[in-house]
UniProtKB/TrEMBL annotation:
This is DUF3596 domain-containing protein. Pfam families: Arm-DNA-bind_2 (PF12167), Phage_int_SAM_3 (PF14659), Phage_integrase (PF00589). PROSITE patterns: TYR_RECOMBINASE. Belongs to the 'phage' integrase family. The keyword DNA-binding applies. InterPro entries: DNA_brk_join_enz, Integrase-like_cat_sf, Integrase_catalytic, Integrase_recombinase_N, Integrase_SAM-like_N, Min27-like_integrase_DNA_bind, Tyrosine_recombinase_XerCD. The keyword DNA-binding applies. Residues 211-399 form the Tyr recombinase domain.
Length: 433
């Protein structure tokens, strides 16, 4: 058939044989024909020359013969078509479309995956984190690769290229833990694609964790008692009872933000929910984090301040009366640290300090396990049991700050006399279970 130049013909092409055309704004040749009643217009990516025109006409003739014989396979003749188009025509052809990994681009699959599978994937917070990882980290690198091209080596190159995009560490390599977290949604996409297309191929994630460099763990910072008092003097007044409640209980900001006034019953604080990034979670980080904390006199005095100053059902609030926000609180905390001139510590340091201070004044480790919400005594000693230079000098001040009822809850019977490790006795009694 003679090739025509110009726009696609205004008249409908013959259904039996189709036609070869060239668009007005392109030098490429196109085929135009009907298949199962659907008009197909496809570029051949060949320039309009006499030789190419003959090639395209021969292709169109063979295609028409295959269609008539019932042997035409759209996916094979147009490998550059989308998976959706290939699946659509495969269904009309009475066959199942099962593309090979080298025929499926990662970006195209992810586009459909985000519409179909992703909406039911985990909690809203998890979906937000995964979507950010996919769109800002994973897709920019792998969008135009096929699944066949995504190898273990390519994945390792990707992890090595990852850098911090903001904050004080901007431009520095991401930590091992952060890299592993970014690979979680990537692995989920890979596994779903293999299941959907019934691929049996080697996973690029196998043994990848062995190649990632180990991250040197930072020592947990423990606050010295006098530094703590200096910090409180420089902390905004509204936040002082909040910070004190943290170091007196081992609670973290997200747990405190989840507290309601109704969670204070009798002699106990009942921790059973948290508030993370604007989302209330009905479960804690682990089952052990759901715990009860005995209310000492020191804790009670701070609770009274928090309960009295807001009509909100939430116990810990901002000066505006809204629930405590971890991000905003971190900024207030950092400002106080800077003004006080003490060593750099974060709000999470209050939890580590609570544990170290408790061990310093002789709390029973098993009771500390319960107060911290850990699974075992081993965890307490591994994380908080390291010697802190000079902390034993603060023991008497810490004991007075916590109060004897912290070491010896009211219900304890026949407590043993407490004497801390240096041999000095404060007449403090210890609880045993």
């Amino acid at each position: 058939m003679k090739a025509k130049k110009g726009t696609l013909a205004p008249e409908e092409p013959a259904k039996e044989i189709g036609s070869v055309k060239r668009r007005k704004d392109s030098k490429k040749l196109y085929v135009d024909f009907y298949y199962f009643g659907h008009r197909i217009i496809r570029s051949t990516e060949l320039n309009d020359t006499p030789a190419n025109g003959q090639k395209v006409r021969d292709f169109l003739k063979r295609s028409m013969e295959k269609i008539e014989a019932g042997t035409f396979k759209f996916a094979e003749e147009f490998p550059g078509a989308t998976s959706k188009e290939k699946a659509f025509f495969a269904n009309l052809e009475g066959r199942e479309y099962r593309p090979e990994p080298h025929n499926v681009k990662f970006g195209e699959y992810v586009k459909e995956w985000l519409k179909t599978t992703f909406p039911s994937f985990g909690s809203p917070t998890k979906r937000r984190d995964y979507k950010e990882a996919i769109k800002t980290r994973i897709l920019p690198h792998f969008r135009n690769m096929t699944f066949h091209q995504i190898t273990g080596q390519e994945l390792f190159r990707f992890t090595e290229s990852l850098k911090c995009s903001r904050g004080s560490n901007k431009g520095k390599p991401l930590s091992r833990a952060r890299k592993i977290n970014l690979l979680i949604p990537f692995r989920a996409i890979w596994n779903d694609a293999c299941d959907h297309h019934r691929w049996v191929i080697k996973s690029p994630f196998d043994n990848l964790h062995k190649k990632l460099p180990k991250t040197v763990k930072k020592e947990h910072t423990v606050i010295r008692f006098n530094d703590w008092l200096l910090f409180l003097d420089n902390l905004e007044e509204h936040y002082r009872p909040i910070a004190e409640l943290m170091i007196l209980t081992g609670m973290i900001p997200s747990e405190m933000a989840g507290l309601r006034k109704e969670d204070i019953t009798g002699d106990y604080i009942n921790l059973n929910r948290s508030y993370v990034l604007g989302e209330e979670k009905q479960t804690m980080k682990t089952a052990f984090r759901k715990r009860q904390i005995f209310i000492t006199k020191a804790i009670r005095s701070r609770l009274d301040v928090l309960q009295a100053r807001t009509p909100s059902p939430y116990l810990v609030t901002t000066p505006r009366g809204t629930r405590l926000n971890s991000t905003d609180f971190a900024k207030v905390w950092k400002k106080a640290v800077t003004l006080s001139g003490i060593p750099e510590v974060t709000s999470y340091s209050a939890r580590h300090s609570f544990a170290a201070w408790s061990l310093t004044i002789g709390i029973n480790p098993l009771r500390l396990v319960s107060l911290m919400g850990h699974a075992s005594k081993q965890m307490v000693f591994e994380v908080y049991g390291n010697y802190v230079e000079g902390l034993e000098e603060d023991a008497e001040q810490i004991f007075e700050y916590f109060g004897q009822d912290f070491i010896t809850p009211q219900k304890t019977k026949n407590p043993a006399l407490f004497s801390h490790s240096t041999g000095h006795s404060f007449g403090v009694t210890a609880i045993t279970y």
